[in-house]
Amino acid sequence: MAPEDQHTEFVPKAAFDALKLKYERLLRAQQYTPAATTTDDSTQQPAYVPTPKDAGPKPITIEEYKRRQQAIKRPLTPPPREKRKRAGRRFQQRRAKAILYHQLNLSTSTDTKREVQKQD
């Protein structure tokens, strides 16, 4: 019996030819490496090498694995909120008076409290 007619014993010829064609395509796909493509004369991309289907994940070192597994450390308390910047008229007047008290170094106790007038 000729080797071309072996397919008739187990599988129909059409199915055998389809499987053979798929197998040949698979072999060609794994061997395919296109030439480097050029966009300009100055820039040249490296040749594309396809990854074979049976290639598994890349092996990593123990240090890299531990670094990936570390939890992100967050502070226990949330950061303090920013104080609201008050810009009202009364608040500005009180602030100006407080600055004057500070500059003149006046006592703020009740017995010696004096009203400070702002000099314009």
TrEMBL record:
Compositional bias segments (type: Polar residues)? 33-46
Instruction: Give the Basic residues compositional bias ranges.
Output: 82-97
Where is the region Disordered?
33-120
Q: Which domain of life is it from?
A: Eukaryota
Composition bias of kind Basic and acidic residues appears in: 111-120
Under what name is this protein listed? Uncharacterized protein
Species this protein is from: Bactrocera dorsalis (Oriental fruit fly)
